[in-house]
Specification:
- One of its GO terms (biological process) is regulation of DNA-templated transcription elongation.
- Residues 90-161 form the Transcription elongation factor GreA/GreB C-terminal domain.
- This is Transcription elongation factor, GreA/GreB family.
- GO terms for molecular function: DNA binding; RNA polymerase binding; translation elongation factor activity.
- With 168 residues, the chain is of the alpha/beta class.
- The protein has 2 domains: 26-81; 86-161, Transcription elongation factor, GreA/GreB, C-terminal domain (Chitinase A, domain 3), CATH 3.10.50.
- It contains 3 helices and 7 strands, in the order E-H-H-E-E-E-E-H-E-E.
- Strands 5-4-3-7-6 form a 5-stranded mixed beta sheet. Strands 1-2 form a two-stranded parallel ribbon.
- Helix 1 packs antiparallel against helix 2 (60-78).
- The relative contact order is 0.17.
């Protein structure tokens, strides 16, 4: 068999490119900070397990874990914790939940959270999203316009409240 296509030294796997880090501030809630710390510990543990494998021919999972650790460490270094409990409930702000009504009368509740804890099915939106930008600073009774790709939507602010589970 020809050795032309066989790599003799399997140790030269270049690190995977870093995950992109957004330019804007990294606001996090205490819950979001705890989640990032947990993700980092879990990823470090996964990397240790990968490195302990007897058969380490495939180094890609290790490289992916190392990349994820670099990302999580960068996110933790740049984290600016904002405690929702310290936010007044007079206007929509980071960390708070806001209930809105569309013109049709349908209601929805959103919580403005850090980017890394945003989760649309849970109603958690990032502060730099178009919806969050439309809501920020609005007070109960105000109407805001959410500029969506499908067209603008008018939303009436019904109530502002602290999150259900603000702490980790």
């Amino acid at each position: 068999m020809s050795r032309a296509f066989v790599k003799e030294d399997g140790n030269d796997l270049a690190p995977l490119p870093d995950l992109p880090i957004p330019d804007h501030p990294n606001y996090v809630t205490p819950r979001g900070l705890a989640a990032l710390q947990t993700r980092l510990r879990d990823t470090q543990s996964r990397l240790a397990t990968l490195r302990a494998r007897p058969d380490r021919l495939d180094k890609l999972p290790e490289a992916a874990a190392e990349r994820d650790i670099r990302y999580l460490e960068a996110r933790l270094r740049s984290a600016q914790v904002i405690d929702p409990a310290r936010q007044p409930l007079t206007a929509v702000a980071f960390g708070l939940r806001v209930t809105v009504a569309e013109g049709s009368g349908q209601t929805a509740t959103y919580e403005i959270t850090g980017e890394d804890e945003a989760d649309a099915p849970l109603g958690r939106i990032a502060p730099h999203s178009p919806l969050a930008r439309a809501l920020m600073g609005a007070e109960p009774g105000d109407t805001v316009t959410w500029r969506r790709p499908t067209g603008p939507l008018e939303l009436e602010i019904l109530k502002i409240e602290p999150p259900d589970d603000p702490q980790p």
